[in-house]
Amino acid sequence: MNDSSWGAPPSAGFRGPGGQGTSPGYGWAAAPSSAGPAHEVGEAAQTRPMPTVPHAGGDSGEAADRDRGAARLSGPLFRDEREPQPGPRQPAGRPPTPSDPAPDPASADGGARGTGAGQGKKSAGRNLRAAIGVGIGLGVIIVASLFIYKPVFVGVVAVAVVVGLWELTSRLTERKDIRVPLVPLAVGGVAMIVAGYVRGAQGAVVAVALTALAVLVWRMTEPPDNYLRDVTAGVFAAFYVPFLATFVALMLDTEDGPWRVLTFLLLTVVSDTGAYAVGWRFGKHPLAPRISPGKTREGLLGAVTFAMVAGALCMQYLIDDGVWWQGLLLGLAVAVSATLGDLGESMIKRDLGIKDMGKLLPGHGGIMDRLDSLLPTAPVVWLLLVIFVGGG
Q1: CA dihedral defined by 200, 201, 205, 210, rounded to 10 degrees?
Q2: Out of 26, 66, 222, 287, which could bridge 53 as a Cys pair, Cβ 3.0 to 4.6 Å?
Q3: What pLDDT score does 60 carry?
Q4: pLDDT tens per residue across span 272-308
Q5: Structure confidence at residue 39 as a pLDDT band (50, 70, 90)
Q6: What CA–CA distance (Å, rounded) separates 46 from 143?
Q7: Cβ burial, residue 271 (10 Å; 0-12/13-18/19+)
Q8: Which residues contact 13 (CB under 8 A, 6 or more apart)?
Q9: Cα separation of 327 and 312, whole Å?
Q10: Residue 133, pLDDT score
Q11: pTM reported for the whole predicted model
Q12: Per-residue pLDDT tens digits for 289-299
């Protein structure tokens, strides 16, 4: 799920000694007077002239703050929250009339979807028409390659992994100046997917180990400054994207592999859809407001309900030797892992100060914005299917 991104400029603060200002987001309630008593350098470091502001009868609370020269906290907590904009002020003693302009509901609720009672008109937060069209197109490509020729689907997964790595490493370089070597990551990521499909879990483990080693060696060709930071981010990227995606190839390498992969994809999509639909319609209580203000507890309940029903149907009718009650447990696990994966990528984007990882998919963002729920869910589904019906 994508949250709206709004950057709010920090408030202009008092400039202290040496040209240093107050912390971002804090501003003085009243500007200093244009002219104040002269001070020596030593005195200036200790005090500043206090402004003289006449008392305004119609706005006593704000005037008292100005008289005290009090600092106020301003600005949103996160980059993608709108700073509430004050509506048109009515003259004292006159009630609002129908001719007065109405306040913007988006500014009243901070632009978060379904995150509190009393908010105005809810917004979907993205172009639903484009999102649905792109989703259907991707679904056709995935299902066709999955059931027509398995190696083609492996190639689709490999391409998604490479693009996801490119998006992640590009954002790390742009926002944090972390220079992760993309070439060994891309080559190693494709090797992990192919090795997992051809050689199973052992092949995937060997491939990820060699990829991590290649990242360390490749980075040695550049100056040693920030070497540890860059290679740590590179190893993280290797595990986060291609290694987790390898479990999709492991599911595919069974007799009923296409149906297992289809179950994995369906449950993840149904979980996301249930969370989005229920949260948008009924969401009032934030799930993790400091990470993703748009997610609600009601949305999580919708994800669990939708995924458990879909899991029971998939295990009963799509998976060999599957039983409906196993599908209930599978759906519950998928809803939890998909939500945690979504929150995990939201944490990364919060740290980087971005809304989306890319712009490749209209209405969705980038490839990584679609893989956020799928990647951590793949090993969960693979493990539970092995426990319930065996490794095939």
Answers
A1: 10
A2: 66
A3: 44
A4: 999 999 999 999 999 999 998 889 999 999 999 999 9
A5: very low
A6: 71
A7: buried
A8: 21, 22, 23, 24, 26, 27, 28
A9: 4
A10: 75
A11: 0.68
A12: 999 888 999 99
Average pLDDT over every residue of 264-268: 96
Tokens of 149: 């020729």
Report how far residue 321's alpha carbon sits from residue 296's, in angstroms, rounded to the nearest whole number: 36
Is 80 exceeded by the pLDDT of residue 203? yes
pLDDT bin (cut points 50, 70, 90) of residue 364 is low
Task: Report the half-sphere exposure of 135 (CA within 13 A, side-chain side).
Answer: 17
Give the Cα-Cα-Cα angle 148, 151, 154 (nearest 5 degrees).
110
Q: What is the pLDDT of residue 233?
A: 97
Helix (H, G, I), strand (E, B) or coil at 73: strand
DSSP, residue by residue, 7-68: --PPPPPPB-GGG-BPPTTEEESSPPPS------HHHHTT--PPP--PPPGGGHHHHHHHHH
CA angle 360–361–366, rounded 5-degree value: 60
Q: Which two tokens stand for residue 79?
A: 């980059």
Contact in structure between 316 and 333 (CB atoms under 8 Å): no
Name the token pair of 370: 């679609």
What string of DSSP letters covers 265-315?
HHHHHHHHHHHHHHHHHH--SEEETTTEEEEEHHHHHHHHHHHHHHHHHHH
